[in-house]
């Protein structure tokens, strides 16, 4: 229950996809007055209608959303979009109040995060490099994991919103870029593990194994991964409704590829995984669940995978 | 405490490496009379000396070890060695008693296991396709996982030994080859996850991250795997004493490569992982711990990984 004697904290959420929507819901639940904005007008309208005008303001631009906010949460797809909604036409930094904090949640190369931090500082605002993990359900529950880095003042200013949105907050250092680096290392592993799970399940099918039994055995064996355990049920149920889409991993393993090439650093395993996600997207499944990599194998080799129950 | 009124069960253990040694210890503890044999005479001698002549007989050949055994456990490196100790000069099948069961524990292509089953049946013995998982410590504790397939009669005959050696027995069907297929799917994932863990940790080091913090964060995130959690501590401690060697994965991912090529089936992620293990072996680390893949990255890129405390 919000304390009615406390002044209402004001936050902006820029980017109202499934993550941003859930984060805004968590902020409202914690007593924040939230101004929401998305570049897609229909999403902003739907958001305001669903949440009721009393607590959520529908903004016409990122600038309007940010104008009165102490905490500006940017949860768009990538660095380019983050840069556009902060610095582009109608961008948040044109209207934001000095001393406010920008919480940058998109997965991006650490160098992009550092560059954004410099731009934000030049406008007199604080910046937190704060990529998130956990998916849409945890976003709505206020149970995300946040991998954050930035100066103490940015953490302090963002704290009430982080409390409302996250179950686990990792404080990873004073420098922007460190949070993004941790996120990228996590995404490298997550992407490889999904691709490997799909490769293994497809080979198991080709070898004539009972896939439900394979799931049971591997889940309790040294071959298990968080992603194997989480994604293989989608395959067993034949349900490729996107909980997290193939396009997330063409993007995130693409960032791994960019960073590693810029560093002259070889990443052969994640490169192979990226190619599988690209093939799956090229085959028309980019917006489907990321376990669709197994359907790529199935199409290539004519495997008969489980189909969704009607 | 063994029941002294019960007739003593007799088992042979052929192959006294770290796994076979541990399995023989578990059998002795359960009251078996064990005849041990290894192609390396010094290992057979050391084994007999350590265990005491009262319970363990040192055999001069696989045939001698198998001559009085009801359960013949073959735990050598691969299909070729299994075939040699069963069918070659001094092989177990030349002396084994009809009705005994051969428990085949090496990781091998399913087709090789089916071929061995036919040879064993032609000699009037039972055959269990029974690859194992868990490592040397669990072998000594009698806490292995066994992925077994074969006829009911083979399971029944082998049951007392399986009880002594395994914490978890998966019964995966009536046909030899199925147990081997499950093991191969597990090894595909295990190998990819080790290679990915090493790739991710190496990239994290290149990006300047605190590796202990990376371990802490990833362990609690969607990028975690059983292998990441198990192997990264070796890297943090700089300890590459082989708990499981690089050469195990050049072998097992080599079997994945053989099977998948024979099936005309693409396995791009595990192929990339195999190449990393081969590079690590080529760089002279084949007998070191499989986390040595990270040292390959370190050598290539001049990374300063943790060193073992003196």
Task: Explain what you see.
- Chain A is an alpha/beta fold and 310 residues long.
- Chain A contains 13 helices and 9 strands.
- In chain A, strands 3-2-1-4-5-6 form a 6-stranded parallel β-sheet, with helices on both faces. A 3-stranded mixed β-sheet of chain A has the order 7-8-9.
- In chain A, helix 7 links the parallel strand 8 and strand 9.
- In chain A, helix 8 packs across helix 11.
- The mean pLDDT of chain A is 94.
- At the A-B interface, helix 8, helix 9, helix 10, helix 11 and helix 12 of A face helix 8, helix 9, helix 10, helix 11 and helix 12 of B.
Keywords:
3-stranded mixed β-sheet, globular, alpha/beta, homodimer, 310 residues, 53% helix
List the helices and strands and how they pair.
The structure is a homodimer of 310-residue chains.
Chain A: E1 10-14, H1 18-29, E2 33-37, H2 41-51, E3 56-58, H3 62-66, E4 71-74, H4 79-87, E5 101-104, H5 110-122, E6 126-129, E7 132-133, H6 135-141, E8 144-148, H7 152-165, E9 166-171, H8 178-206, H9 211-219, H10 226-237, H11 246-262, H12 268-285, H13 293-301
As a whole number of angstroms, the C-alpha radius of gyration of chain A is: 21 Å
Low-confidence stretches of chain A: none
With strands numbered from the N-terminus, the spatial order across the biggest sheet of chain A is 3-2-1-4-5-6
Distance between the termini of chain A: 42 Å
Give the oligomeric state of the chains in this entry, treating copies of one chain as homo and distinct chains as hetero. homodimer
Estimated structural class of chain A: alpha/beta
**Largest interface in this structure:** A-B, 65 and 65 residues
Mean pLDDT of chain A, to the nearest integer, reads: 94
The succession of helices and strands of chain A, N to C, reads: EHEHEHEHEHEEHEHEHHHHHH
* Main sheet makeup of chain A: 6 strands, parallel
How helical, in percent, are the residues of chain A? 40-55%
The counted number of beta strands of chain A is 9
- Proportion of residues in extended strands of chain A: 5-15%
Treating each run of at least 4 consecutive H or I residues as one helix, how many helices of chain A?
Answer: 13
- The shape of chain A, in one word, is globular
